[in-house]
Structures are given as structure tokens and as C-alpha cells.
Please model this.
Amino acid sequence: MPSLQENIQRVRENIASAAREVGRDPGEITLVAATKVQSDETIRAAIAGGITVCGENRVQEMTAHLESDAYAGAELHFIGHLQTNKVNKVVGRVELIQSVSSEHLLEAIDKQAAKLGLVQDVLIEVNVGYEESKSGIAPAEVEALARKASELPNVRLRGLMAIPPVAGEEGNRGFFREMYQLFVDIKQKMGDNEADINCLSMGMSDDYADAVREGATLVRVGTALFGARPPMHP
Model:
């Protein structure tokens, strides 16, 4: 089996190749290692192998890894569903919250960030496939939530995130194209915040190369780096 270092190298090469295919600079794309259910030791090994950003899905796991300093040397993003009652465990502890999908959550983040005297970077999560089983807002609702974010002094909107449906015949490229157009549209409409809006997070282990071809600036990769996930902890 390939080593973690070999997997990291392969994924980076695939990202670079996909970027060059469409005339993009590979340096524009950030690989986010999705470290859900990984051990402290595995996270440290990934960072030692060149990972610069880790993404966590669960607040409880993230808190435990922070206590053991497992993310030392890398940025930390929160990429899972965030409940408002856990905002105080996340705000100020991560560089970016990628999964904001309601005004209520935005306001809770802003309130906690104000208490800490900081500005929290966020992405709006878009349910681009209109799937009932997934969180995120409909594409038509993005502008209103983006404008709400712009009104909050302790929140900075950095862009959009999406988890498209399971790929069909064309893969997810159609959804990725839709997200890119939405990203460009929101960036133009939010003129005052245009310089801040530079993140489009989409693509995971099965489709990150296509996401890069369609404009992703962040790809969230777990299985392609770490292999099949171990069982979830209770």
C-alpha cells in the first residue's frame, strides 16, 4: 500500500495536472486534509509530509486534537455541520469556518467573535443539488446571506463551499460549474467585500481534479490521503 507521504504527493500532482490543463496556476489551489476520525499521530504525520491545512468535521474531535496540539504547523478549518450551541468551541480556534448555512449561525459566530475581539472568516455552504439530506442553503438564497454577513462587524465572508450530489455520468462538473458562476456572481455583487471573497471550496477524494478544472481554490480530501476511514469513535 502507498504511504501517506506518497498519497499526499500523488494528490498534489493530480491537482497540479488538472490546474495546468485549464491554464490555472497550481499554486492557486489549497489542499485541505479532511482529518475526520484520524489519530493525533496520523495528523502529525500528514503535516510533516507537507499538509498545510487540516479540516475537521466534528467539534468533539477537533477539541481533543487541539488539546494535544496535533495540528501544530498547519492551519485549521472547520468543514462539518456546526450547531449554534458549539460556536464557542470553534470561533477563534480555526482560521476558516467553511459551513455557514443560516442567518442564525452567522449571528452566533459574530457574537462569539465579538466577545473574543476578533473577526472570524467564513464560507457560505450551498446545497447546490437541493438535497434534503444535506445542509446548506439554496443558490437563490446566497446573495441575501452574503449581504447579512457583510453587515456583521466580526464576520468576514471569504467565499462559498459546496458538497454536490453523488456524481452522475458527467461526474460533478455541472454542479462545479454552477458553483463557480455563483461564486463569480456573488463576488461581483459584494463590491465592498470583493477583495476578501477569494475562496471556492468544492471537490473531495473522488472528484477533486474536476473541481480544480472548474475553478475550486480549496479541495477537501480525506480518503485519497488516508485510505478508508477507521470506525467512528463513540
Q: What stands out?
A: Strands lie at 30-34, 53-56, 75-78, 96-100, 120-126, 155-162, 199-201, 218-221.
